[in-house]
């Protein structure tokens, strides 16, 4: 099992507790965590299922390499963390 | 440094990581602050008080009553004045030795490139993604360190994108530019006042460290502040070899 967590700034829009998922890649982990959460899904991914530009994903504290296909591996016990860019100042 | 300066900056000079040499570097340094609002206020106050030689304040806005809840550079009698002139006045009372250049404009294009080229460090304290990407591009081109901060609601982010280092990512490596960015403004969403203070003061600390040359900067790390839980989280950001802004940097 891996966990998928959405940063606090994202959760101010749509609350979503930490999700337990079983998935080999970030893409599959995200799909599992967003299943049935259309509002949150639309915030993270675009219509084509691509990661939105203002969103970044980290696995075990390090930024993923494959933004395009989200093919980075997720291991048993991994922590997937989803962050959005803030722009206020 | 004269005797008055040795006394004024004595609590810095006492620190072995700063000493007279580090303080001299600050006195000779020029910092460009983009935005004289919630983040730029504490950042500018700390940089001026700490003895930075020249602070360039760039902001096209005027002070509004709704700004005063958090923008501590501005006073009630500043409402209606330009933020940069209001800021210049406040900083002059904090430390008259700090030279403040007030630019009442939203820097872009050649003007932005010119100001970035003259600066030793750039602080992005602005409130929109378009400017964030403009400033990032200018810093990558000029190989200048960028201290980036952002805040909304109870949340903050701060990092350093140091284009003078080959291993440091740029802002675009982390958040690519796109037209689907969800732009949230403090005017609509709200902002818990001290969050801008915490993030802006952190930006000032990183800028001073970079100028002095002490400690480890936030280059390669993004700090996230959850102000409701009052928890910081640090995550590692890496350079994107396919980044359209820094990917072709000659020193990559
Ligand atoms: Zn880059």
Secondary structure layout plus pairing:
The complex is a heterodimer of chains A (89) and B (252).
Chain A: E1 2-6, H1 8-11, E2 19-21, H2 26-34, H3 38-44, E3 55-59, E4 62-63, E5 79-84
Parallel strand pairs in A: 1-5
Antiparallel strand pairs in A: 1-2, 3-4, 3-5
Chain B: H1 3-8, H2 10-13, H3 19-27, E1 30-34, H4 40-49, E2 54-58, H5 83-94, E3 99-103, H6 109-118, E4 121-124, H7 129-142, E5 145-152, E6 155-162, H8 171-174, H9 186-189, H10 193-212, E7 221-226, E8 231-236
Parallel strand pairs in B: 1-2, 1-4, 2-3, 4-5
Antiparallel strand pairs in B: 5-6, 6-7, 7-8
Helix pairs in contact in B: 4-5, 4-10, 6-7
The structure holds zinc ion (ZN).
Structure description:
- The complex is a heterodimer of chains A (89) and B (252).
- With 89 residues, chain A is an alpha+beta fold.
- Chain A contains three helices and five strands, in the order E-H-E-H-H-E-E-E.
- Chain A has a five-stranded mixed β-sheet.
- The longest helix of chain A has 9 residues.
- Chain B has one domain: Rossmann fold, CATH 3.40.50.
- Chain B is 37% helix and 19% strand.
- In chain B, strands 3-2-1-4-5-6-7-8 form an eight-stranded mixed β-sheet, sandwiched between helices.
- In chain B, helix 4 packs parallel to helix 5 and helix 6 crosses helix 7.
- Classes of the chains: A alpha+beta (89), B alpha/beta (252).
- Chains A and B meet through strand 3, strand 4 and strand 5 of A and strand 5, strand 6, strand 7 and strand 8 of B.
- Bound molecules: zinc ion.
Key terms:
heterodimer; A: 89 residues; Ubiquitin-like (UB roll); 5-stranded mixed β-sheet; B: 252 residues; alpha/beta; Rossmann fold; 10 helices; 8 strands; 37% helix; globular
Q: Which compounds are bound in this model? A: zinc ion
The CATH class of chain B, by name, is: Alpha Beta
Number of helices of chain B: 10
CATH architectural category of chain A? Roll
Q: What's the overall average pLDDT of chain A, rounded? A: 93
Oligomer: heterodimer
Termini of chain B, distance in Å? 39 Å
Helix/strand order of chain B: HHHEHEHEHEHEEHHHEE
CATH structural architecture of chain B: 3-Layer(aba) Sandwich
Number of domains of chain B: 1
Are there runs of chain B of 5+ residues with pLDDT below 50, and where? none
Weakly predicted, low-confidence segments of chain A? none
Largest interface: A-B, 25 and 48 residues
Please identify which CATH superfamily of chain B we are dealing with.
NAD(P)-binding Rossmann-like Domain
């Amino acid at each position: 099992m891996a966990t998928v967590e959405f940063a606090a700034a994202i959760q101010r829009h749509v609350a979503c507790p930490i999700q337990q998922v079983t998935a080999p890649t970030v893409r599959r982990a995200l799909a599992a965590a967003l299943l049935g959460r259309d509002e949150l899904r639309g915030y993270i991914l675009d219509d084509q299922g691509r990661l939105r530009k203002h969103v970044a994903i980290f696995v075990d504290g390090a930024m993923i390499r494959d933004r395009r296909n989200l093919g980075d591996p997720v291991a048993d016990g991994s922590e997937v963390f989803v962050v959005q860019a803030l722009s206020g100042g | 440094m004269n005797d008055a300066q040795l006394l004024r900056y004595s609590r810095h000079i006492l620190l072995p990581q700063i000493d007279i040499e580090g303080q001299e570097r600050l006195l000779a340094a020029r910092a460009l602050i983009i935005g004289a609002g919630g983040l730029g206020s504490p950042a500018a106050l700390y940089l001026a008080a700490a003895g930075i030689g020249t602070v360039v304040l760039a902001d096209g806005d005027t002070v509004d009553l709704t700004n005063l809840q958090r923008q501590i550079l501005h006073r009630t009698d500043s409402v209606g004045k330009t933020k940069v002139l209001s800021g210049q006045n406040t900083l002059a009372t904090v430390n008259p030795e700090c030279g403040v250049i007030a630019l009442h404009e939203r820097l872009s294009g050649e003007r932005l490139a010119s100001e970035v080229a003259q600066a030793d460090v750039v602080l992005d304290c602005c409130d929109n993604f378009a400017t964030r990407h403009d400033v990032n591009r200018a810093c990558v081109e000029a190989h200048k360190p960028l201290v980036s901060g952002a805040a909304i609601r109870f949340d903050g982010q701060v990092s350093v994108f140091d284009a003078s280092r080959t291993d440091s990512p740029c802002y675009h490596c982390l958040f690519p530019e796109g037209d689907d960015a969800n732009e949230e403004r403090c005017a609509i969403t709200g902002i818990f006042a001290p969050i801008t203070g915490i993030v802006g003061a952190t930006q000032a600390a990183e800028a001073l460290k970079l100028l002095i040359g002490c400690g480890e900067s936030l280059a390669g790390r993004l700090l996230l502040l959850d102000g409701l839980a009052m928890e910081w989280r640090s995550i590692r950001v890496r350079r994107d070899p396919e980044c359209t802004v820094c990917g072709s940097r000659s020193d990559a």
